[in-house]
């Protein structure tokens, strides 16, 4: 799989951005392929395989390092969570609401790529927002309540 080939990402590997070396990583679904550079693909560790089909709060519990790493790779800063995960009302069909600060060089492709990468890596739906994406009537409240990943 080459950089940019996302069609078979789930069938290939997933990278856990938790300071793991390739020897500590395992293939996803038993697929055998060449190890890729961290920027090229995502690997799964054994503990992250258990995250599939869980609630967003459970995915967050195991994926904090991964969220922070992917935010940096997609040229954003200060990832925070808000919404149902904070109130404890999330369910398996809920999404994980992530608030990030865009950097001067951040593009819409970075934000969309971050959302796709987080969904792929965590196994839950993710909604990535910047403060200016939030409706003005709830922006101040969300910014006040959002907690750092």
UniProtKB/TrEMBL annotation:
PANTHER family, per database record: BSL3053 PROTEIN, SSL8005 PROTEIN
Family that this chain belongs to: Belongs to the MntA antitoxin family.
CDD domains: NT_KNTase_like
Keywords from the named record: ATP-binding, Magnesium, Metal-binding, Nucleotide-binding, Nucleotidyltransferase, Toxin-antitoxin system, Transferase
Cofactor(s) required, per the database record: Mg(2+)
Keyword presence, Magnesium: yes
Domain Polymerase nucleotidyl transferase, residue spans: 69-143
Organism, as annotated: Paracoccus benzoatiresistens
Protein origin, superkingdom: Bacteria
InterPro entries reported in the protein's UniProt record: NT_sf, Polymerase_NTP_transf_dom, Type-VII_TA_antitoxin
Keyword Secreted among UniProt keywords: no
Protein name: Nucleotidyltransferase family protein
Xref: Pfam families: NTP_transf_2 (PF01909)
């Amino acid at each position: 799989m080459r950089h940019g080939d996302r069609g078979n990402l789930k069938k290939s590997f997933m990278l856990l951005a938790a300071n793991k070396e390739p020897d500590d990583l395992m293939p996803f679904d038993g697929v055998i392929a060449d190890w890729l550079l961290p920027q090229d693909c995502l690997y799964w560790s054994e503990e992250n395989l258990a995250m599939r089909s869980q609630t967003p709060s459970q995915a967050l519990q195991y994926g904090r390092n991964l969220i922070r790493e992917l935010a940096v790779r997609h040229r954003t800063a200060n990832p925070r969570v808000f919404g149902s995960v904070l109130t404890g009302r999330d369910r398996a069909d809920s999404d994980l609401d992530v608030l990030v600060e865009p950097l001067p060089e951040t593009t819409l492709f970075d934000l969309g790529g971050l959302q796709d990468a987080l969904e792929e890596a965590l196994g839950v739906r993710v909604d990535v927002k910047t403060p200016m994406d939030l409706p003005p009537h709830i922006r101040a409240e969300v910014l006040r309540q959002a907690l750092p990943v």
